[in-house]
Amino acid sequence: MTAGTGADPDGAVLTRPVLDDGPDLWRLARDCGLDVNSPYAYTLWCRDFAGTSVIARDADGTPLGYVIGHLRPAEPATYFLWQVGVAERARGRRLARRMLDRIAERFADLGVTHLEATVTPDNAASRALFASFARDHGAEPVWTPLFEHRHFPAESGGHEPEDLVRIGPLRTAPDPS
Ligand SMILES: CC(C)(COP(=O)(O)OP(=O)(O)OC[C@H]1O[C@@H](n2cnc3c(N)ncnc32)[C@H](O)[C@@H]1OP(=O)(O)O)[C@@H](O)C(=O)NCCC(=O)NCCS
């Protein structure tokens, strides 16, 4: 972090989302090619799950990326990462990793020991992201099938299957070596 500005060395500013960020989360989901949930869902997320989410912006305020997630109600030591997206022009700068690490900084206080997410089988970038996070937090990613075609309504156009990745137990800080 650059002292005073709250910005990363490349100028990205990572913050907890507030209600006014809801529209930009929706736009980022759309522009990143993710499943686009309702505008209401993103704004609600900013109200109820801001503590386990992050939005990244350029120094001029342009949105660059986001992570939204929550602690699983039935298993609050598990953080479920629902969506991660980085604008195309900002990819390959470790922004997704920095956003994940920013949330993981809160894990010790929250009592979180594991991270989960689901990924479609062909999403190499996302798989690499979680492998990278697992490696630097001293854990192996374990992949298992979770959601299948039949779990999504065919009349919605269908949906690729989603594999669950579970990572943990997590070291609370990345290994500096
Ligand atoms: C997946 C995504 C968020 C990665 O964002 P990013 O900021 O470019 O990723 P990072 O630069 O932080 O890279 C993190 C790790 O993943 C690897 N990686 C990133 N993109 C990759 C790609 N296209 N192919 C292979 N590896 C990739 C990096 O090399 C790095 O690994 P390392 O630590 O071993 O070097 C971004 O590609 C994206 O928004 N994709 C579209 C939306 C999506 O699919 N989201 C995930 C599903 S919820």
UniProtKB/TrEMBL annotation:
Entries under InterPro entries matching the protein: Acyl_CoA_acyltransferase, Ectoine_EctA, GNAT_dom
Sequence segments annotated as region (Disordered): 154-177
Primary gene name: ectA
Domain of life: Bacteria
Name of the protein described by the UniProt record: L-2,4-diaminobutyric acid acetyltransferase
Any one GO molecular function term: diaminobutyrate acetyltransferase activity
Pathways per UniProt: Amine and polyamine biosynthesis; ectoine biosynthesis; L-ectoine from L-aspartate 4-semialdehyde: step 2/3
Documented EC number(s): 2.3.1.178
UniProt-listed NCBIfam families: ectoine_EctA (TIGR02406)
Keywords: Acyltransferase, Transferase
Gene Ontology biological-process entries: ectoine biosynthetic process
Skewed-composition ranges (Basic and acidic residues): 154-165
Family: Belongs to the acetyltransferase family. EctA subfamily.
Residues of the N-acetyltransferase domain: 13-162
